[in-house]
Structures are given as structure tokens and as C-alpha cells.
Design brief:
Keywords: Membrane, Transmembrane, Transmembrane helix. By secondary structure, this protein is mainly alpha-helical. It is 70% helix and 6% strand. It has one domain. A two-stranded antiparallel ribbon has the order 1-2.
Length: 69
């Protein structure tokens, strides 16, 4: 895959993270509920964070060329 496409995918992941971790969406999860003993806000932030790391890993792994592997 070309470097330009890789860059576009990484920018997309970045802006997705900015959108998902922004105040208006985080305010939805700011309630007094717990999921598996963890407050819902903390659980959602951690889940989104891990998902963004996973997406970044997949983009980098998929766009890696054979000579860089």
C-alpha cells in the first residue's frame, strides 16, 4: 500500500479519536453506573483508547512493505 494512503488512514484514526474522546460524547457516559465494577465513563474512555491503538496497529501492519518487515 502506498505511503500516502497509509497517511490518510492514520489521519482518519486520529480524527476518529478526537471525535470519540470529545466532551459532548463523553458527557453521555458521565452517569452513576458501573460496568463490571468500573465507572462507565472510565470504561468507555479506556475501551475507545484501546480500540484506537488497535486500529493504528492494523493500519501500520497492513501498510508495511516486505522490505520494511
Amino acid at each position: 500500500m502506498k505511503e500516502a494512503l497509509k497517511s490518510q488512514y492514520l489521519w482518519t484514526v486520529f480524527f476518529l479519536g478526537m471525535f470519540l474522546l470529545n466532551y459532548p460524547l463523553m458527557a453521555i457516559y458521565n452517569v452513576d453506573q458501573k460496568l463490571a465494577g468500573i465507572p462507565l465513563l472510565y470504561f468507555s474512555v479506556f475501551s475507545i483508547w484501546v480500540s484506537l491503538i488497535g486500529l493504528t496497529y492494523l493500519v501500520v501492519k497492513k501498510t508495511r512493505t516486505d522490505k520494511n518487515a
